[in-house]
Design goal:
The protein is mainly beta. Helix content is 15%, strand content 37%. It is built from 5 helices and 19 strands. The strands form 5 sheets. Strands 3, 4, 5, 8, 9 and 10 form a 6-stranded mixed β-sheet that branches. Strand 17 and strand 18 form a beta hairpin. The chain is globular, with a radius of gyration of 21 Å.
């Protein structure tokens, strides 16, 4: 049977850990959500936006190396390590590869790990209605971990895991109800995420320069009426000098005369306005009272449509 891609279940943000014996905690891995589809004949990979990623991550295509199921849909996060920690910017170097000829070099330069945490389809049947603990038993029986494939570990003490994750500077944790079903295209409190820092995907509506090179991007989010609101600027983060130079070239055809933001940025005198088509993942500490980001930093540019960058 043909397995059509589905939008995966998502956790909701919380600021307090759930209580009860039915809850387990897992490390929230900072990577790219990838679902692996195997219909018994062909393996295909898709991200949570239903964009195919089979080309980008060929290590996962030879399913028989790590999974004994005759057909399956696996849910997990593809991560890449930098200095021993998951790096979103690093994994995006693989995610952005679009030419088949560049894949072997990308694989050599950037190793990945597939952190598997759920199964949606198993041996010809959807298992969405099984409780999480039973789905995890199926994973344990059918997945053989190795260097590129790992099963995400459960922890009973969410607070202890949270403390460890915080000390190591990781993104956060996800708490899951072991009795819960899997909700395709869902997002509710069956899964709850507690993050050490906040992040979002923002629209780039302008830039500033230092000399001939872009040195900061002006960020925005859309409201429900389609108006773009300025929420801050970011000039720090994980971009290398070569990436700043590449961005400088990339924005040239996007330059426009009119400010795309409804409100006025503080750097309006030195800003160059852009057609709002680029999007970036931004890490920040908190929202200010003026609805701007405190200490934003650039993690990576992403392929999320601008119109999906909304105030929650």
């Amino acid at each position: 049977m043909e397995l059509k891609p589905v939008i995966p279940f998502e956790p909701v943000k919380v600021d307090k850990l759930p209580e009860g014996d039915e809850w387990i905690a897992q490390v929230k891995w900072d990577g790219v959500r990838i679902l692996t589809y195997f219909d018994g004949d062909k393996v295909r990979l898709f991200n949570r936006k239903l964009n195919e990623r089979t080309l980008q991550f060929p290590e996962l295509v030879n399913l028989s190396r790590y999974c004994s199921a005759s057909s399956t849909v696996l849910d997990g996060e593809v991560i890449a390590l930098q200095e021993g920690k998951p790096s979103f910017q690093t994994v995006m170097k693989r995610d952005r590869v679009t030419q088949r000829g560049r894949v072997p070099r990308a694989m050599k330069e950037t190793s990945i790990i597939y952190m598997i945490f759920d199964i949606l389809f198993y041996n010809g049947k959807w298992v969405l209605d099984l409780p999480l603990n039973q789905r995890q038993e199926i994973l344990t029986e059918n997945i053989t971990p190795h260097d590129e494939i790992q099963l995400v570990e459960n922890f009973d003490d969410a607070q202890a895991l949270c403390d460890v994750v915080t000390a190591q500077g990781l993104e956060g944790i996800v708490c899951k109800d072991l009795t819960s079903k899997y909700g395709i295209k869902g997002k509710d409190r069956r899964w709850q995420k507690l993050k050490n820092y906040l992040d979002l995907i923002a629209v780039v509506g302008g830039v500033t320069f230092r000399g001939d090179i872009v040195n900061a991007i002006l960020l925005g989010l859309y409201d429900r009426t389609g108006q773009l609101w300025y929420i801050g600027h970011a000039g720090t983060g994980k971009l290398t000098m070569s990436e700043w130079r590449a961005l400088t070239e990339r924005i040239k055809p996007l330059i426009i005369r009119q400010r795309p933001f409804v409100n006025k940025p503080e750097r309006i005198k030195t800003a160059i306005w852009l057609q709002p088509s680029l999007t970036a993942k931004i890490k920040f500490v908190e929202w200010t009272s003026g609805q701007t980001l405190r200490q934003p930093s650039i993690q990576a540019f992403v392929e999320i449509p601008p119109e999906e960058c909304l105030f929650e």
